[in-house]
Amino acid sequence: MLGLGHVFKLGTLGAAVMAVGLLFQPAASSAQPLRIEITEGVIEPMPFAAPAFVAESAAAQNFAQELSQVVSSDLTGTGLFREIPREAHISQITSFQSPVQFADWKAINAQVLITGAADVNANGQLVVKFRVYDVFSGAEVGQGMQFVGTADGVRRMAHKVADQVYSRITGETGYFDSRVVFVSESGPKDQRAKRLAIMDYDGANLQYLTGSGAIVLAPRFSPDGSRVIYTSYQTGEPRIHVLNVGDVQSRILPAQGGMMSFAPRFAPNGQSLIYSATTGSNTDLFRMDIGSGQITQLTTSPSIETAPSFSPDGSQIVFESDRSGTQQLYIMSTSGGEPRRISFGEGRYGTPVWSPRGDMIAFTKQNAGRFHIGVMRTDGSEERLLTASFLDEGPTWAPNGRVLMFARETQGASGSSALYSVDISGRNLKRVQTPAGGSDPSWGPLQ
Amino acid sequence: MKTLINATLMVALLGATACTRADRFDDMNGAGMDANAGINQGIIPGSANDPRSPAYFNQTIGDRVLFAVDQSTLSPEAQRVLDGQAQWLMTNNDYLAVIEGHADEQGTREYNLALGARRANAVMEYLVAKGVAQNRLRFVSYGKERPIEVCSQEACYAKNRRAVTVISIGSLS
């Protein structure tokens, strides 16, 4: 009997994940567990081998290839792992059940071996199995698992496999089976067309959510990823709209107050939101109960208060204000009250975003004509700048709080905006592939 | 006020010169325009020389004022332009105006949205102080979303940090 564990069912739109069986055997323990400590700052990526998944039927042939490719791409994309190319493999994995020839994988210096198999069952569903091995101890890392889903969910199933591998080796939750909503940009700077778009974290499966008829800005996912809240000029003025991701239907939120309202963010419980509204020259923060539409004003200073972000427990808000004369970061209670300034370095600080772990704030910093994405602790200490460029802006956290995505605009008449990601260590800066330009990313939850 | 009248006279004179050229141009192209009317009054109706025309508002008075980096204070030069705008709006009561506030690209998106609002509001408050009825005015900020110049140098930034008064015929209902 295979030690296959949880069986997950993936719906077409991937909302339902259901555990229907717990048939696994205990994991074999290795003397020195395979481990990457992310906080230590990995200089040398861990080498792994991921031979093509075994196709257990002809119908599963194409899926098997794609699965192992996506798993490898997820892992190498973190910068924490390095794939040993297939050409270097000595052994082939032709059967998921056969014993592994560990000597062959040791010989090519693989520390991790990922084996898998794909099949298409009688209902036309894709069945994916995998195992993770510590090559040097010859032991399995965690238990084998099986996922069942619709064929169009093949990439999601691969992301789930990769999330498991990442999680078992780093001890952190993964982030590959997640999506990003952002503003797709095309055209020159003075005629830029903007549309909301949603995609997998790696840029695959892109779908447009709005047309380019009205300017759209700064979308944010609801905590469960089912809704997107954003600012649109559809009515001629910036107003807050809510969009249902499932059926792509949007509506404007009523009674927002002020002449313009923008910068909306969902509370962690999804029941209320905070946003900025402008009256005269004054921009303040407000909270709205979505169900009742009741609005509470949170700040009253005559300065600009915007770009709010909730703490993960919903009790506090970090935001930017220029009450001191320049943009700086402040934290206050969700119910309002006296804010406490947390940014004290040189330059201006904006777009603070609370990490999903609660311990860090990511931000945009402008200093000496350059823009940076940085992180600091919630008391403002241990500030670290992760990037530097002509214009970096608007970080968003991966669901595990280990990676940030942001937008980088290049300068000049032909300048354009693209999405990038970077580790909170400052390593592994890379562009996220999108068909057009991109800005204002919001990273959704792990699905 | 005396300065304003002098400026208006000068504009009218300059306009007459420009108009003569325009008439010749029209004649050469056989556009069938009543050239005599133009010469007699020095004004082509609807042109930038016609003090009642939107073109006059946009070009002769100037539809926009510029701001310093991260500021919404109106310079003396901006105030002169806005004096002209206020005068025009009070003369042409069938027009409404939307003031569009803008920022350059050196700033984060949502802050720039609020900054553009500050600029537009500064213009609106000035026009109201000069006597334009508040209910004929409203403002909207585009932040850094709608630059008119695309280089990444101060020469372009200076033109992008603007508030533009966009007029249109309309009722207040």
Automatic annotation (TrEMBL), chain A:
<dbReference type="GO" id="GO:0017038">
    <property type="term" value="P:protein import"/>
</dbReference>
<keyword id="KW-0574">Periplasm</keyword>
<dbReference type="InterPro" id="IPR011659">
    <property type="entry name" value="WD40"/>
</dbReference>
<keyword id="KW-0131">Cell cycle</keyword>
<comment type="function">
    <text>Part of the Tol-Pal system, which plays a role in outer membrane invagination during cell division and is important for maintaining outer membrane integrity.</text>
</comment>
<dbReference type="InterPro" id="IPR014167">
    <property type="entry name" value="Tol-Pal_TolB"/>
</dbReference>
<dbReference type="GO" id="GO:0042597">
    <property type="term" value="C:periplasmic space"/>
</dbReference>
<comment type="similarity">
    <text>Belongs to the TolB family.</text>
</comment>
<dbReference type="Pfam" id="PF07676">
    <property type="entry name" value="PD40"/>
</dbReference>
<dbReference type="InterPro" id="IPR007195">
    <property type="entry name" value="TolB_N"/>
</dbReference>
<dbReference type="GO" id="GO:0051301">
    <property type="term" value="P:cell division"/>
</dbReference>
<protein>
    <recommendedName>
        <fullName>Tol-Pal system protein TolB</fullName>
    </recommendedName>
</protein>
<dbReference type="Pfam" id="PF04052">
    <property type="entry name" value="TolB_N"/>
</dbReference>
<feature type="domain" description="TolB N-terminal">
    <location>
        <begin position="34"/>
        <end position="140"/>
    </location>
</feature>
<keyword id="KW-0732">Signal</keyword>
<keyword id="KW-0132">Cell division</keyword>
<comment type="subunit">
    <text>The Tol-Pal system is composed of five core proteins: the inner membrane proteins TolA, TolQ and TolR, the periplasmic protein TolB and the outer membrane protein Pal. They form a network linking the inner and outer membranes and the peptidoglycan layer.</text>
</comment>
<dbReference type="InterPro" id="IPR011042">
    <property type="entry name" value="6-blade_b-propeller_TolB-like"/>
</dbReference>
UniProtKB/TrEMBL annotation, chain B:
<keyword id="KW-0131">Cell cycle</keyword>
<comment type="function">
    <text>Part of the Tol-Pal system, which plays a role in outer membrane invagination during cell division and is important for maintaining outer membrane integrity.</text>
</comment>
<keyword id="KW-0564">Palmitate</keyword>
<keyword id="KW-0732">Signal</keyword>
<dbReference type="GO" id="GO:0009279">
    <property type="term" value="C:cell outer membrane"/>
</dbReference>
<dbReference type="Pfam" id="PF00691">
    <property type="entry name" value="OmpA"/>
</dbReference>
<dbReference type="InterPro" id="IPR006665">
    <property type="entry name" value="OmpA-like"/>
</dbReference>
<dbReference type="InterPro" id="IPR039001">
    <property type="entry name" value="Pal"/>
</dbReference>
<comment type="subunit">
    <text>The Tol-Pal system is composed of five core proteins: the inner membrane proteins TolA, TolQ and TolR, the periplasmic protein TolB and the outer membrane protein Pal. They form a network linking the inner and outer membranes and the peptidoglycan layer.</text>
</comment>
<dbReference type="InterPro" id="IPR006690">
    <property type="entry name" value="OMPA-like_CS"/>
</dbReference>
<keyword id="KW-0472">Membrane</keyword>
<protein>
    <recommendedName>
        <fullName>Peptidoglycan-associated lipoprotein</fullName>
    </recommendedName>
</protein>
<comment type="similarity">
    <text>Belongs to the Pal lipoprotein family.</text>
</comment>
<keyword id="KW-0449">Lipoprotein</keyword>
<dbReference type="InterPro" id="IPR036737">
    <property type="entry name" value="OmpA-like_sf"/>
</dbReference>
<dbReference type="InterPro" id="IPR006664">
    <property type="entry name" value="OMP_bac"/>
</dbReference>
<dbReference type="InterPro" id="IPR050330">
    <property type="entry name" value="Bact_OuterMem_StrucFunc"/>
</dbReference>
<feature type="signal peptide">
    <location>
        <begin position="1"/>
        <end position="22"/>
    </location>
</feature>
<dbReference type="InterPro" id="IPR014169">
    <property type="entry name" value="Pal_lipo_C"/>
</dbReference>
<feature type="domain" description="OmpA-like">
    <location>
        <begin position="54"/>
        <end position="171"/>
    </location>
</feature>
<dbReference type="GO" id="GO:0051301">
    <property type="term" value="P:cell division"/>
</dbReference>
<keyword id="KW-0132">Cell division</keyword>
